[in-house]
Design goal:
about 70% helix; UbiA_prenyltransferase; globular; mainly alpha; menaquinone biosynthesis; single chain; membrane
Length: about 290
């Protein structure tokens, strides 16, 4: 039986910036058009956090039963370590998706945007089939595309839309920036796992590109948000404060570009997430008050 601490570790709290940053950015964009709704924003945060916990448990379950985690370097895995029964981990994933669904119902009821129930269903399906099912798209090099879509465009613009009933150019820019950094987190993670993923047949984008090109991709993705910062700053000078997040990326960029491998890339994954959270929060505030 896994301990409470192991279940918490299995939820991977270090991935929470991927869920929090888009809600902060989207809510800031909504506030920028005088449409911030604290209750809807809070429920949107519950949806986002529940989805990421769900996808983490779903990945733990699916990768664990396939044997992908048997020799992986990285965070603790409940199924791979044999600390919890696969069925229990799968149940935790479904329970998390259930919480996301209930909170999502609250969001659409308060906003009146009932058609977004379909978007919510798509998000839950995307979370499960990332590594679940007979043909998981995460094993076919599409993980980064999904992360950009779900934790970038949909999360940021969806958060804005349910509050404001519209999206803005600033909101789109924030969505691209958050999505790029969220992808960078996944790229750093998959760069670390290239050796074990090759052995187990998990064809991530990193496996397809190879070590060198994956490092180049990480660098490009990490810098995209600061291009967005400059573009938004042309109209809203407060957005230039987004550059305060750049120092948080210096250490992970150095690790990736200088050839760090294995466990030495674990801090790069973490720090990229912190940089995303900082950029999303600062940009959200700039859009709200700038």
């Amino acid at each position: 039986m896994a301990t409470v601490a192991q279940w918490i570790e299995g939820a991977r709290l270090r991935t929470f910036p991927n869920a929090i940053a888009p809600v902060l950015a989207g809510s800031g964009a909504a506030a920028g058009v005088d449409s911030f709704d604290p209750l809807i924003a809070l429920l949107a945060l519950v949806v986002s956090l529940s989805l990421i916990v769900g996808v983490n448990f779903a990945n733990d379950y699916s990768d664990g039963i396939r044997g992908t985690d048997d020799s992986r370097v990285g965070p603790f895995r409940l199924v791979g370590s044999r600390s919890a029964r696969p069925g229990a981990v799968r149940g935790a994933a479904f329970a998390s998706f259930g919480v996301a669904a209930v909170a999502g119902l609250g969001v659409v009821a308060l906003s009146g945007q009932w058609w977004m129930l379909a978007i919510g269903a798509l998000c839950i399906a995307g979370a499960w089939f990332y590594t679940g099912g007979s043909k998981p798209y995460g094993y076919a090099g599409l993980g980064e595309v999904a992360v950009f879509l779900f934790f970038g465009l949909i999360a940021v613009l969806g958060t804005m839309f349910v509050q404001a009933g519209t999206v803005s150019g600033f909101g789109i820019g924030a969505a691209v920036g958050v999505g790029a950094l969220s992808c960078a987190v996944l790229v750093a993670n998959n760069l670390r796992d290239i050796p074990s993923d090759r052995v187990t047949g998990k064809r991530t984008l990193a496996v397809m590109l190879g070590d060198r090109d994956t490092r180049t991709l990480y660098t490009a993705l990490a810098l995209v948000p600061f291009v967005i910062t400059v573009l938004i700053g042309l109209r809203n000078s407060w957005a230039l404060l987004g550059f305060l997040a750049l120092p948080l990326l210096l250490i992970p960029l150095r690790a990736v570009t200088r050839g760090a491998t294995g466990r030495y890339l674990i801090p790069a994954v973490r720090d990229t997430g912190f940089a995303m959270l900082a950029w999303g929060a600062i940009t959200g505030l700039a859009l709200a008050f700038g």
